[in-house]
Write the structure tokens for this entry.
Amino acid sequence: MRLWRYLWPLPITLFGLILAGIVKASGGACQRYGNALEASNGAASRLLWLMNPWANIEAITLGHVILARNTDTAARLRTHEHTHVRQYERWGVIFPFAYLTSSAIAVIKGGDAYRDNVFEREAFAVQLEGERRIKH
């Protein structure tokens, strides 16, 4: 079962590894945290902009790779993005399609494509719970 969690999202992870290689080659940092590789600094901001020039993407999860603008952003969003890693482990290669479908449903219902996406809501809830634990 553990191997399946890595194989199921592998095509997306491979794309993420290509982007992580670009980040590393441009002077950025790549570091493993838990079961994910975090790539930040260097060309990371430019790559995030290229993915969607109309959104201010701070970080994105691609399988077991997290691409973040810089190391501070990676640390701040670590819990949130690692929730997306676990979502990839559950949904595998269909996760991007499920994510987009959830965004479309949110918009059709009059909500926000990002904040009302069920996958984002889960990630924000996990992040909030982590922040509560740190404060107490």
